[in-house]
Structures are given as C-alpha cells and as structure tokens.
Amino acid sequence: DVQLQASGGGLVQPGGSLRLSCAASGFDIDDYGISWFRQAPGKEREGVSFINVGRKFYADSVKGRFTISRDNAKNTVYLQMNSLKPEDTAVYYCARAPRLPFSLWRAQTYYDTWGQGTLVTVSS
Question: Which three-class secondary structure state does DSSP give residue 31?
Fold first, then answer.
C-alpha cells in the first residue's frame, strides 16, 4: 500500500522548535515531489514547503525558520521548524505529487496521496 505517515507534532512554546517526519511506504520518495501543508483552525489548507530532486521551496511565512530535508535511506521527509510562532499552530500534512510544475507546488490538485496529519500547537 502507498502510505504517508506524518508524526512529530506537539505543544511547544513560542520561539521553540519541532521536527516533523513524513515516513513513506509503498513507493520511493526519490521519484516524487513531497510537500508539507498545514491547516489552521478556521482557515484553508496552505502549502508550507516542497522538496524534489534537490529543489526546495518555502512559503514566505516560514522562510528562514523552517527547513525541509529528506533521508532517502529511511524514505522519510523532514520539516525542521525553528522560531515557532503562535500563528504556526495548525495540523500539518505531508503529501506526494507524481509530477508538477515547480511554480505550482502549492496547488493541491497535483497531490495524489496525503498523510493523516500531525497537530502542532505553539502556545505559552
């Protein structure tokens, strides 16, 4: 079965850090673009970051604070989140795109498999 398993969420104080993991099974992450999206309460889901064949993209709101990476040996994509803010509070999802124009990495219609989400809460 093709699956994505997101984990690593939790409660963290403002200014703190978390690392999210997206473990893939049933396919090789090297063959796909992988993104992190998030959905805050009462808001639409938005793209956070994307990685594929060495290309990385970030939403303006997280540039300089979040870093996306992947470990091909573990078939896992990570999202290192530093300097967290209350507005980063959301459910974070990872998703797979078979192919897409890089400029459209935020377009959710290109993604065919989604993880179950992991909740990140930034609060004092």
Answer: helix
pLDDT tens across 32-59, in order? 999 999 999 999 999 999 999 779 999 9
Amino acid at 67: T
Give yes or no for a contact between 102 and 39, defined as CB atoms under 8 angstroms apart: no
CA distance 52 to 54: 5
Q: What per-residue confidence (pLDDT) applies to 2? A: 96
DSSP single-letter state for residue 72: T
- The phi and psi torsions of 42 (rounded to 5 degrees) equal 75, 5
Q: Which strands form 18-25's sheet, in the order they lie side by side?
A: 3-7, 18-25, 76-81, 66-71
DSSP characters over 87-120? GG-EEEEEEEESS--GGGTT-GGG--EE---EEE
Token pair, residue 9, equals 């969420």
The rounded distance, in Å, linking the Cα atoms of 15 and 122 is: 9
Residue 41 and residue 24: Cα distance in Å, rounded?
26
- Any idea what the Cα angle at residue 7 is, between residues 100 and 97, rounded to 5°? 10
